[in-house]
Amino acid sequence: MAQPEQIIGIYERKAGEFDTRRSRALFERSWLERFAALLPAKAAVLDLGCGHAEPIAAWLIAQGFGVTGIDTAPTLLTLCRQRFPAHDWIEADMRGLALQRSFNGIVAWDSFFHLTYDDQRAMFETFRRHAAPDAALMFTSGPAHGEATGDHAGEALYHASLAPEEYRLLLAEAGFTVVAHKANDADCAGHTVWLAQRKA
């Protein structure tokens, strides 16, 4: 079975394939629009696991938001800086992240779910610490508690998910209210999506 500690190395080794294969069709648009509707104009957005910035960060930038992207793959971050040099791209692990600033929006699309159960639980304090009042938070997970193995350019990728009930509890404990949630969204390539907002 795929191991979580392999994730960082895989995305760096396969950066070129990831850039080539990642769909730009923006099947995520409806969720991004709901996320953006919760943000003020020119919002500061933290993109955790930003990859090569396309299409998620690129769409956010096109809406006039300022993006700070976090990723562990230097090659992917180089692509981000080449494509969007006016924005901030930081090599860091989302686990234990401490940027000493807050954001109007936080997104962890197809990244947070590579963490182990305990690392996911700990991330809710990281979300809280970086969330401004009324901040929007959006992330993808699995539909139910369990581990799974995916494939990326021939490499096995670790995925994990907590139960929906636990995500709701962790969000509430971190001061977030669930705005929308859908498991296996057929209109979003089968993604399970959470959208929440920090209570003012």
UniProtKB/TrEMBL annotation:
GO MF term set: methyltransferase activity
Gene3D superfamilies: Vaccinia Virus protein VP39
Pfam family, one: Methyltransf_23
GO biological process: methylation
InterPro entries for the chain: SAM-dependent_MTases_sf
Keywords: Methyltransferase, Transferase
Recorded superkingdom: Bacteria
Name of this chain's protein: Class I SAM-dependent methyltransferase
